[in-house]
Amino acid sequence: MSNKIHPTAIISKTAIIEENVEIGPYVIIEDNVIIGKNTKIGAFCYIYANTQLGENNLLSPHVCLGGLPQDITFDPNKKTYLKIGNNNIFREFVNIHRSTKEELPTTIGDNNYFMGTVHLGHDCIVGNHNIFVQNCILAGHVIVGNRVLISGHVAIHQFCRIGDYSIIGGLSKIVKDVPPFMMVDGNPASVVGINVVGLKRNNFSEEQRRHIKNAYKILYKKGLTYSSAIEELKKQFSNDPNITNLISFIENSKRGILGAEKES
Asked: Which residues have a catalytic role annotated?
């Protein structure tokens, strides 16, 4: 099928535009960009050099992808990348920067939904099936897992990790890692429970949810040190892959994990 490209669009001769792509008015696409099949790009979008878009992505007007990192030490002559998978939705004024390292691009997976004015800094890595609500911002080097919900106006400190199936409440300030399955809220943020609704929506069984809830209690409610809590989790849930993943996430944390909500 042929592409639909508005005559006002400015597209580099080195860009690769695959089949059935729609490009709206006043779009700018720089050198060495790849646009995958069935992608739709709205008016006034700017796709910077070395950005790679997979198939079936939707860009609303004024989206900017692959701009220079906001890092005062970055050499703008360095060839770095933004790589985006398939079936992602980018609403108005989303802004995502390319990486600072040539060998490790800023990376977006598949089936993510970025609501209006979301910003992701350089060197972020995002998995699949995540939702980023209006105006949330991620500093550089943030890692987001899979099926995470980050609410509006959330700010995430650089180098933090956000675990699978977690949810972060609106206006939260995240300065440490968010473990998988947890519900987080506050400024500064703390863990206030497990993401029960998210687990149900993603077809976790009652037994799986019960194990996760018990793990949360061991980790946050028994007054144990994290190292003692981890040993307890290993004893009780050695055959549960969800708890094994939780343990691995905590053991590999470099910034430390968020603490629990203080008791009233």
From this structure: 122-123, 140
